[in-house]
Design goal:
Largest sheet: 8 strands, antiparallel, barrel
Helix content: under 10%
Number of strands: 8
Number of helices: 0
Shape: globular
Order of helices and strands: EEEEEEEE
Strand order of the largest sheet: 1-2-3-4-5-6-7-8
Distance between the termini: 29 Å
Strand content: over 45%
Structural class: mainly beta
Length: 99
């Protein structure tokens, strides 16, 4: 499984992301990115129990995620959600912070 990187920041865009970001499918929550202190992030693909550790860098309205030798830049939208865009190797579309 190619590891890739993603995601994003908290509402407002000025704060580094923290906590779980993901989405709900068929009523079940899936954490895709889990941002921790020290610019550390864990990536988990939907449907997999494999967790890939990586790092992230927050700048303005983007978050660059690096894991397993791959990097992806995610855009932070007006709601504080992360947008991986179409065709992203890790995930397409938008993921939001777990509430």
């Amino acid at each position: 499984m190619a590891a890739i990187v993603l995601l994003a920041a908290a509402c407002g865009g000025d704060e580094a992301p923290s906590g779980e970001y993901g989405r709900t499918e068929a009523g079940q929550w899936f954490t895709i990115l889990n941002f921790r202190s020290g610019n550390q992030v864990t990536l988990t693909m939907i449907g997999s129990s494999d967790a890939i550790n990586g790092t992230f860098r927050h700048e303005g309205d983007t978050v660059a995620v690096t894991a397993a030798g791959d990097s992806r830049t995610l855009r932070i939208d007006g709601n504080g959600c992360l947008d991986g865009g179409p065709g992203n190797a890790l995930f397409s579309g938008v993921i939001c912070k777990k509430r």
